[in-house]
Design brief:
The strands form 3 sheets. The chain has an 8-stranded mixed beta sheet. It is 2% helix and 29% strand. The chain has one domain (40-243): Jelly Rolls (Sandwich). It contains 1 helix and 15 strands; from the N terminus they run βαββββββββββββββ. A hairpin with a 2-residue loop joins strand 8 and strand 9. It is mainly β. The protein is globular and about 50 Å long.
Length: 249
């Protein structure tokens, strides 16, 4: 069920970050009404996900497999996509999560891939030391105020769903920005091969499959990010989407 929310095309520039769980939706009246569970290709992202701005493709779908055009959908827990694992539901906290299929083929120049970007501007609470979030994927970059932040793995969380037993969580240090209004930006990349595109060159030897990304359950926390020496104690096993390796800088 879609929940109505206040439209905000410019994010939360005058206040705290909003819609951090992607559950506030405000489907535009000029679009066909959604049928729960029935895929829909997309509507402008600032309608579907109030507070957030999206590029490279401005539309955000509903339970819709976008393939790797550089697009996204809000998805429910029973959504299925082979790029997330065969017959494995999407990790969702609450009603929806945000699923991304970044452009998986170089277009500007060889080996130059465009990220899918999700951003909003808001106020970081003065007592915040970290931003924590659920993330399943294999190549994510997080920026605050235009500066890339290091990703720190957190302990996996038991989901309660045996089909997706563990949810993977990560954090970035936001303490230098506490009390400030800054842009928060997520850049999602895909450098794998997508069989959907029949006109692409043949798969290169060893080239991995393109993988989707899922983001959900963002929150600012007074807890600091874990020290690198404690990572081994966190029970961090398979990083990325259902066991795929994830790049970290």
């Amino acid at each position: 069920m879609l929940v109505s929310g206040a439209l905000s095309g410019l994010g939360a520039s005058a206040g705290e970050f909003i819609n951090l769980g992607f559950d506030q939706t405000n489907w535009p009246s000029n679009q066909p009404p959604l049928i729960p569970g029935t895929p829909f290709e997309g509507a402008p992202g600032n309608w579907v996900c109030p507070g957030w701005l999206t590029t490279t493709y401005p539309l955000v779908g509903y339970n819709y497999t976008q393939h790797f055009l550089g697009a996204a959908s809000i998805v429910e827990r029973d959504f299925r996509d082979t790029h997330f694992g065969k017959d494995i539901p999407a990790p969702v906290v609450g009603t929806f999560s945000f699923a991304v299929w970044p452009q998986s083929f170089p277009e500007i120049a060889p080996n130059v891939y465009l990220p899918y970007t999700l951003a909003q501007t808001g106020h970081v609470p003065s007592d915040s030391r970290s931003l924590r979030f659920l993330y399943h994927g294999n190549d994510l970059r997080v920026f605050l105020g235009g500066n890339e932040r290091t990703l720190y793995p957190l302990p996996d969380v038991i989901s309660g769903d045996p089909r997706v037993p563990l949810y993977h969580y990560f954090a970035v240090d936001v303490s230098p920005y506490a009390g400030q209004t800054v842009e928060l930006r997520f850049d999602f990349y895909s450098r794998g091969y997508d069989e959907f595109w029949g006109d692409l060159p043949p798969r290169r030897p060893g080239e991995p499959d393109a993988l989707g990304h899922v983001l959900d359950d963002l929150s600012c926390s007074p807890q600091a990010v874990p020290e690198p020496s404690t990572w081994a104690l966190l029970g961090v096993g398979a990083l990325g989407y259902y066991g795929s390796a994830r790049r970290r800088k």
